Amino acid sequence: MALHTPRLIQQSPHLPFGDKQDASFYGKDILSVKQFSRGDLNFIFGIAQEMSEMVRRVGSFDLLKGKILANVFYEPSTRTSSSFTSAMERLGGSVIPINEVRYSSVSKGESLPDTIRTLEAYSDVIVLRHPEIGSAELAAKYARKPIINAGDGIGEHPTQALLDLFTIQQEMDRIDGLTITMVGDLKYGRTLHSLARLLTLYNVRLNYVSPDVLRMPGHILDEVNETSIPQAEYNSLDPVIGESDVLYVTRIQKERFSDENEYESVKNSFVISPETMQQAKEDMIVMHPLPRVGEISMDVDDDPRAAYFRQMEYGLYVRMALLAMVLGKA
Ligand code: ASP
User: Is 320 left (phi over 0), alpha (psi -120 to 50) or beta?
Assistant: First the structure.
């Protein structure tokens, strides 16, 4: 069986940071995946690859020594927040963590632009998660330092999509030619909105599987339609599980529902189990941005095709790459 072995570390010929085309990310914001070309992605993934090798060899190094990241989270986070912290610290920089805005002046009514203007006085780059669509763009309007969007409500989550794509590339050795099936909460799942957009740069096939009330938003379907990427919607996994190369599962996002009954009626719509995996290709991978709340049974975790924990680690390298790039060190 050609099953997946963890392939987190692969060798690349040059170390460190040599021979890469300069994509000029220095000083730039990262707000939406729409800003990236395929060339940009190759560049980012090349740097992420080198970051993984450096972490493996030396753990931490001083590429961003003296630089400070303000990590500002108006919504809960485990992975995004801690991976940005780890990324900055592994690069020799330091972090101002504002993980609980309740204890900052936001609770006194301070506006987002003022909070951002304050934090940029003390830092070199700001990572922002905020519940409103467009908040990162708003922050970027006021900030002179780079803003990295770590999730703007149900809008986008560009750094997650970058790490998702890096995961696919590392695990499958290619992106072109793959069939990617997205399952769960496609309406509120910002990671999927970003990933679907990013995948339009490749020659892929997209399947969307969700309850009716959680279908992929029309504006994303329209954007994909403007390209030649085939896409199709389903309310069952059965017709597509056997043809999928990547199964991207998402959590039904309780916090986004205004009607709790509606959440209750759809919360267990899709659960990936060992039985589901029996119908899947031997080299399919299962991804999930995490946290999961039951949509992938823990019995699947030991299946080599379960890539979701490896996916988190790929995220560290992508975020190290992004920080180095926007701070002019890649
Ligand atoms: N961690 C992801 C996000 O922040 C997915 C989730 O919360 O379900 O969007």
Answer: alpha
